[in-house]
Amino acid sequence: MSKGTATGHKKKVPVPMTKLNSRDRTTMILMAAVPTVLVVGLIWFPALFSVILSFTNWNGIGPLSGIQFIGVQNYVDILTIYPPFWPALTHNVLWLLSLFVIFTPLGMFLAVLVDREIRASRFYQTSFYLPVVLSGALIGFIWQLIYSRDQGLLNVVLGTSIDWYGNPDVNLYAAMVANGWRHTGYIMLLYLAGLKGFDPALGEAAAIDGAGQVKTFFLITFPVLRPTNMIVLVITFIDALRAFDLVWIINQGRNGLELIATLVTANIAGEASRVGFGSALATLMLILSSIFIIIQLRIMVKGDN
């Protein structure tokens, strides 16, 4: 028995490359090279090229040799004389708050309910997750049926005639609700996966000590789900920054629905064709995303230590 146990814990020694045959070496090289080329070519190179273009006034027409570098002028213009920027940044912050304060806790709450194996829990799980597989454009069309001023379900129920997508005072919040519909299902699935790996003995021990279900969740379950919490934090933040498709399908990010991503698209692919200026906006998005991801990685490394 002891011999078998010792064999089971025997440390594996890596095989040197020189002892592999040519087929294995080729396979290992391809396994390392193909993902590296894809990541560099599809992610890092476009990102680095966008940062370089952000210091130019290129309009996307003509050869690259005609590009003129103008330093940080694009960034100065964005912060000083570009009216849509600050409203767009404010809208992104509100978008983020709605996800953090409303829809992420709602997804976590639904995960707890579904995890309790209530009657028809499979049906609820599928129903809540269904919006996740839909594109943002399709979600926009679906909620158009609810928000329609003349025949929409919401106006019929409330007895009003509000143009939920057209009124700049309310269209941002209407879009937030539509986006939260999808976000809630995604968060529910992540927390449900985390709860499936939770040791029920911890909850039973807390119950024996007299802790209620709510107290047990916040003092025992929630801290144990720390890896899931960190993933949810990052996904929620990135979701708020890259919010685009739903708003673009409504009115192309205008009239109260300005977001940073729509400004990037409007400048690069729109009639203005200001690739350098749009790249500066995209670089600002990249910086904001990187700050939060770096903080998250530092917290994870610190926790592991």
Q: Mind explaining what this structure looks like?
A:
The protein is mainly alpha-helical and 305 residues long. 70% of the residues lie in helices and 0% in strands. It contains 14 helices and no strands. Helix 5 (121-129) packs across helix 8 (171-196). It is globular, with a radius of gyration of 25 Å. The two termini are 34 Å apart. Mean pLDDT is 84; it is low at 1-8.
Question: What labels describe this entry?
Answer:
single chain, 305 residues, mainly alpha, 14 helices, disordered N terminus
Please outline the helices and strands.
Layout: H1 2-8, H2 22-53, H3 73-80, H4 85-115, H5 121-129, H6 136-147, H7 153-158, H8 171-196, H9 200-208, H10 213-224, H11 226-241, H12 245-251, H13 260-268, H14 275-304
Helix pairs in contact: 2-14, 4-5, 4-8, 4-11, 5-8, 6-8, 6-12, 8-11, 9-10, 11-14, 13-14
Task: Describe the structure concisely for a colleague.
The chain has 305 residues and is mainly α.
Reading the helices and strands in chain order gives HHHHHHHHHHHHHH
| Sheet having the most strands | none
* Ends distance: 34 Å
Shape: globular
Number of strands: 0
Number of helices: 14
Structural class: mainly alpha
**Unreliable stretches covering 5 or more consecutive residues:** 1-8
